[in-house]
Amino acid sequence: MNRSINLVIPLLIAALTATAWWLLNQPSEEPPWPNRIQGFSFAPMRADDDPSLKKFPSVEDIDADLALLEGRAHAVRTYTVEDTLAEIPRLAAAHDLNVTLGAWIGAEPAANETEIKRLAEVLNEGHRNLVRVIVGNESILRRDLPVSELIGYLDRVRKLTWLPVSTAEPWHVWLKYPKLVEHVDFITVHLLPYWEGLPVDQAVDYAVSRYNELKEAYPKKPIVIGEVGWPSNGRRNRGAEPSPTNQTRFLRRFLARAEAENYIYYVMEAFDQPWKAKTEGATGNYWGVYNANRQAKFEFSQPVVRIPQWRELAGLSVVMGVLLLVFLYRDSATLAKRGKGFLALVTYAISTAAVWIVYDYTRQYMTPATAIVGVLLLIGGIGVIVLLMAEAHEWAESIWLNKWRRPFPLRTVPDEQLPFVSVHVPAYNEPPELLCATLDALAALDYPRFEVLVIDNNTKDPKVWEPVQAHCETLGERFRFFHVDPLAGYKAGALNFALRQTDPAAEVIAVIDADYLVIPTWLRHLVPGFADPEVAIVQAPQDYRDADQNAFKAMCMAEYRGFFHLGMVTRNERNAIIQHGTMTMIRRQTLDEVDGWAEWCITEDAELGLRLFEAGHKALYIPCTYGRGLMPDTFADFQKQRYRWAYGAVRILLRHRRELLGLRKTALTAGQRYHFVAGWLPWFADGFNLLFNFAALGWSVAMVMFPDTITPPYLTVALVPLVLFVFKMSKSLVLYRRRVTATLRQSLAAGLAGLALSHTISRAMFGGLVTGKLGFFRTPKMAEAPAVVRALADTREEGLFAFAFLLAAGLVLLRDDAYMLDVRIWVAVLVVQSIPYLASVLVSLVSAWQRLPADLVGVMSEMNGQRLSGVQPVSREG
């Protein structure tokens, strides 16, 4: 049955995927392209040509282009007579093509004089295929010169030739300057509805209405449509979407209308112009009917399909989805049908989006810069896919498991069969009253045979450690106190020292932090887990008792709970938990076999757990509260704690990279490798997100400084951070509400606290990659709350980033093209990227205001195993 489900669900989702591609690519009938059109705007630049750099096509290239257009158009329109382009009239005559000759008029008077002189020379050559002359192209629109100066050039040229003379401008310029109309023999109008944001279905009617408006305003002047067209790629301009399909639809519809109305027109344009990207932005080089390789970009008579290659792309997305799903389904025997369906849906959505983004990106003309960016985006895209799949997998397993594979039923074991336990309590400079309370709780344990070793390492002030020593003496011989100064190795050094002092009869080592109050049944309930000889670790979650003090601590507790009630639970299913150094028990024999705790590692607990897995041992995680400690008092301390955890994770992955990648033989299973790599992947994502943020700010600065040449990043690429943010936030809220059983306020508070740590984690990621030495950050307890000024100072980096992003978003919105979709999407990206930094500042301020009541968030209840199949509820009374 399970195998059939694994086959049926992917097939159904694959069928839906293929159907979606099919529905989006239904052919539509459009008027056929005429056998011979009136004319093309003609700029014969090849991919390597660039008139702005004085690199012009050869005469042979121009002749080849005119030969391609022979029989397909009556005429061509040129824009300048510079260099080899002055040869166009002569070459066009041999291909039966008339020429509307253009002269470029710009902002430099000397260059204009040179152009007029060359124009006169070409006119004097007496080419009989010249039909009209156009002096200047959108010179007024670009504000290169005033109308009076352009009129002067027009009057001079009209004296040079008997041919009709005009200039070319958009419709609104002609309406605005009637005086200009008096100095031309005909009106050359540009009708480009894309630039006015018109949807393609309205574009032809709009162009015709503007033509008629000019005709009504100047009934005695002939009108020539100097440019009419639609781009096949580039930036979406409000309702105007550039695409090969829309280019085809617009041109074929317009040409049918133009033929019926007997317009004189020039299609904009014959060939794509890659060089225009640096002067007209991402759209300027995609107006050609033929691409830069002189290949037709669309069908001239067949029904129009949005993506002609949709069948291949659909097949590729299905194959990619199947491969990803095979990986996710390898170990899904206990996953319910809904969970498998969810994974299939997410997988096919991701694969389809990936295929589409790659296809869309490769439709642009590749330069060395775009190719490098493309490779970087591909690498980043693979990381995004892996991250999304890991998040989706945890989502599915947290909600839709039929049953837990590794339940932990409580066992009643006679006292004489319970092993001797040595409880180790490392301490450094801890308040005496706090540590004494911890020892009192241990003294109340309902367990027949145990000892407690307190190792105070490197505390300098005798007033701190001597009261604890005296308290141990009052608790009896079970409690032994050691003050060691100096002692290297930080916490790991203290634990290794304790291991050397442990009673030889001890079979189990238990470790708790100095601030933890355990319940009496802790050992009695969990030690029986070692009855399985393969079990080396039995772990209970970290939990906290001070969440009711203020809103900040209630937020922190909600944030912690996600890992201990979600991540650790799903990891336990594949024997891949992350051991943490409190509320943990380790089999003494296995601890000796792996040479104890690693003193090189700042997160010695997680590192030990991984070494034990590599040696083939098992671990058990029981998601029930058996002891509760204290949380950091300030956001600064919260940051230090998370920095240490993230930094240690990087160092562990680097040290064990060969084992995790399977390059060195160990007993690690595929599931364990997956969880240790994928489980820490979100933290690495935060690290790489920092690189993205620097790049985003740099790009935004360039957009503000060079608005005419720097456009927003590619639209489909810019959408990825937004989708990733929404997916992660949705997952967090859903899982907290469904599995952690948190209120909406607690779920939002947990998400806010988690976001607030993003920058800290990103710094830790790079710190761990760059250096292998970090001083041990002890997490302070019962510290004084900082003032508001101190809270802001603690998040100065985050505050600067937030300010930079919001400032960049505001400045980008001041661009003239701020109405365009890609600009607005980019502004949304900048705002979203500022949210984690704003969260840091806000949470730090909340931590400063200790009087904010915890009720604003709500204090989460203890973790109770009755919510998990096979785990009995735990009472504090035992």
UniProtKB/TrEMBL annotation:
SUPFAM superfamilies hit by this protein: (Trans)glycosidases, Nucleotide-diphospho-sugar transferases
Keyword terms of this UniProt record: Glycosyltransferase, Hydrolase, Magnesium, Membrane, Transferase, Transmembrane, Transmembrane helix
Transmembrane segments: 310-329, 341-359, 365-390, 683-704, 710-727, 748-770, 799-814, 826-849
Keyword Magnesium annotated: yes
GO biological-process terms attached to the record: carbohydrate metabolic process
EC code: 2.4.1.336
InterPro entries: GH (IPR017853), Glyco_hydro_17 (IPR000490), Glycosyltr_2/OpgH_subfam (IPR050321), Nucleotide-diphossugar_trans (IPR029044)
GO molecular function, one term: hexosyltransferase activity
Catalytic activity: a 1,2-diacyl-sn-glycerol + UDP-alpha-D-glucose = a 1,2-diacyl-3-O-(beta-D-glucopyranosyl)-sn-glycerol + UDP + H(+)
Protein name stated in the entry: Beta-monoglucosyldiacylglycerol synthase
Subcellular location: Membrane
Gene Ontology, cellular component aspect: plasma membrane
Coiled-coil region(s): none
Topology in membrane: Multi-pass membrane protein
